[in-house]
Design brief:
16% strand; 4-stranded mixed sheet; single chain; alpha+beta; PH-domain like; 2 domains
């Protein structure tokens, strides 16, 4: 029902809100209202509206936080939205009994939506914190995070990374394809890797530096300079065992992920071989410096493999002596730049080797003949 020209009442029980009705501004107008004989009397814009018996209580608004009384009169639908706070209490106090269930339902709907919004904002907050938490984790628990990721990388995927390094090695270095050095490295390597999950690839490269490295997935590269410096095949076997241990313990993969970022590890895990980060794998492996813990673990595992293969483990410590005896003033051997040695470490290796008395099986390699066939064997200072 519509009455024109009425003044806004000032009696107790009046509460404020906003009125929407035909003929009013589309965004509604400020209004006051009060209950009278079970109907709502609304006063706004110099007019008065009276709700009918079919009026309903509804929740509305973006988050269902608004409370409205809705009815239809001769001009169309009318909506009175009660302001929050004290007006809501006054509205509820005079509410007719037949509208109480609807009022409770509207309040429950508003509470449900409010809870959803709180959860939504909490989820957004957590989502925004994820990058921060990841960075914090990588900074404070980088080893744990990298170790966790690497455990999910299958050996088959890791082997593909080894294939990539293999291709890059062949592109950047001259690989010695055959001969006694290649046969000896393969013979030693196969004895050290019995039962491995990897299918190893053994490479000897024509490089004068005293160096060797293991790539993820079972690729071991030995420099001719190292074979030339080793006094016995057991010394070379000690280095190869140490590198095999790095591969079996996945130190190279862990170091690559740590150096190049978790993105590189995720690329390996997902089989994405197009990323630029993986293109840096060769360089990172050549320059990688393992932690003392990783070096100690590789020493222990390398010695264990030498013993299992019946190769004298003293060769690992003996080669450190060989490195130390390099001519004074010469450049630091390449192997020492990435695998730091020390007197204590050599002593620990020698002491550990003494715990295994043998007997040992001599490696069937004519070491002197092998060294004579290496590139540069006729240069001054090379082993004869």
């Amino acid at each position: 029902m519509l009455n024109s020209g009425s003044e806004v009442p000032t009696k107790p029980g009046i509460f404020s809100g906003r009125m929407f009705a035909p003929g009013l501004d589309g965004v509604g107008v400020p209004a006051t209202a009060h209950w009278q004989h079970g109907s709502l009397q609304v006063h706004a814009a110099g007019r008065t509206w009276t709700s009918g018996v079919q009026a309903t209580v509804q929740s509305g608004g973006f988050n269902a936080a608004q409370l409205a009384l809705v009815w239809v009169d001769l001009e169309g639908e009318c909506r009175f939205y009660v302001d929050a706070g004290a007006p809501r209490a006054a509205f509820a106090a005079g509410l007719p009994a037949h509208l109480s269930p609807q009022h409770r339902a509207a309040g429950q709907a508003s509470a449900r939506v409010e809870r959803r919004f709180r959860l939504w904002w909490a989820a957004l907050g957590l989502l925004a914190l994820v990058p921060v938490l990841v960075v914090a984790l990588l900074l404070t628990r980088v080893d744990s995070a990298v170790g966790w990721l690497v455990t999910y990388i299958p050996h088959e995927q890791e082997a593909k990374l080894g294939d990539l390094v293999l291709v890059q090695t062949r592109a950047r270095m001259r690989v010695i394809e055959s001969g006694p050095a290649v046969d000896a490295v393969r013979l030693i390597g196969e004895r050290l890797t019995t039962g491995s999950a990897y299918s190893y690839r053994w490479l000897v490269v024509d490089q004068p530096e005293l160096n060797a490295f293991a790539a993820p997935g079972g690729v071991v590269v030995v420099y001719s300079g190292l074979l030339q410096a080793a006094k016995t095949p057991e010394e070379a076997a000690g280095v190869i065992a140490h590198e095999v241990a790095h591969a079996e313990l996945r130190h190279g993969l862990q170091g690559m992920v740590k150096t190049l970022g978790v993105r590189a590890g995720a690329a390996v895990l997902l089989g994405d071989w197009s990323g630029a980060a993986l293109g840096q794998a060769m360089t990172s492996l050549l320059e990688m410096k393992f932690s003392r813990e990783a070096e100690a673990a590789a020493d222990t595992e390398g010695l264990r493999r030498l013993v299992a293969a019946r190769i004298n483990p003293a060769g690992m410590a003996d080669f450190m002596d060989t490195l130390a005896l390099q001519s004074p003033g010469a450049a630091v051997p390449e192997l020492l730049s990435t695998h730091p040695a020390s007197e204590d470490r050599a002593a620990r290796l020698r002491e550990a080797a003494r715990a295994y008395p043998g007997p040992w099986t001599a490696l069937p390699v004519d070491w002197a003949a092998l060294q004579k066939r290496l590139p540069g064997a006729d240069k001054p200072g090379s082993a004869q």
